Amino acid sequence: MKPILAEVITIGDEILFGQITDTNTQWLGAELTKIGIRTIRKSSVGDKKEAILDVLKEATERADLVIITGGLGPTKDDITKATLCTYFNTTLERNPEALAFVTKFFESRGRQITEINAKQADLPLNCTYVPNDWGTAPGMWFNENDTVYVSLPGVPFEMKNLMQYRIIPLLQKQFETPTIVHKIIRTVGIGESFLAETISDWEDALPGHIKLAYLPHFGQVRLRLTGTGDDATLLKKQLDEQVEAVLPLINSYVFGFDDDELETTVARLLSDKTWMLATAESCTGGYVASQITKYAGSSAYFVGGVVSYSNTVKVNQLGVKPETLSQFGAVSEQTVREMAEGVRKTLGANVGIATSGIAGPDGGTPEKPVGTIWIACSTEKKTVARLLKLGPYREQNIQLTSVYVLNLLRQTLLEEN
């Protein structure tokens, strides 16, 4: 079966200027994959007619489906419709169905439609009007020279709903697509190159219709298996078999699959043991606690935390000995152990974790350069500490430390079980 290839184009100076984050292309890529359409390229272009025409021409040469988002508002800087008219050598004409929809939209809100609002109903003659039930900017469907073009509003809420309920059913009628199935193995604590070396023989033996991708991100690597074929059930079975084959090689690094996050895996382990967690953070400044509590229901396993940025707080709230600080310093194995033990006892938790280090960009010494960080995990049975040697970048160090201390917590909980 011939693969159906898509290209996504986002339009707007605000994207290129970095004034808004483009979340549309990520969402569209995931939704297209679900219906067997493979996205081969994503482009962003400003509000310039010639630039939009160039990227449309390039996309047409590569893709069976071109999806455009943005530039459909009623103001002068929104030029997508006029540019599409130029590209397709056609003109704008007021669409009666679109005009009736826009008029009703404003009347239902107790407002009178103005001429600038009515212009939302001006559409290229060669397009099929696709109603936008969540706004006034219409969707447009073009079928020209064996290529489908879909123009959607840039507002994510409107785009997603229009795509989900209007466009995807049309695409499924238009194209006969293969089935694409993904399976993701989530690992932590092993670098991408070491992981690749460990599973090299298994990867080389993968069948041709199953591809592997490495997706590293802050101390974690996702292994994404993608199977392409005609039978979704068979593909899922084959992917599961490949997972079972590789797990013995990397099992100690695997914390979950598909949509699992390290925080949710830790939450599940804590809940299974009916244990409560407490955190003591110095260099991470509360980031670890925020990662734990961003999920609903975290009060069932998280009792609280102490941001012990100063040595005074370490001593008074966590019970770190003054002599420990004077002899070994705040960034030391001895101090971080006492922090983890202290927060566990002080807050009445079953397990405590702690971070203390030099996140940067300043504060380093020849003995303890920026990126020197200690983490610890303490239960009633034992306290374990680890030294991290990270880089000079503050934000990266904070995020990596969070990952590593949560992984230390995960390993400790598994050993306790």
From TrEMBL:
Coiled coil: none annotated. Residues 7-174 form the MoaB/Mog domain. SUPFAM superfamilies: CinA-like, Molybdenum cofactor biosynthesis proteins. CDD domains: cinA. Pfam families: CinA, CinA_KH, MoCF_biosynth. Belongs to the CinA family. This is CinA-like protein. It comes from Larkinella knui. The lineage of its organism: Bacteria, Pseudomonadati, Bacteroidota, Cytophagia, Cytophagales.
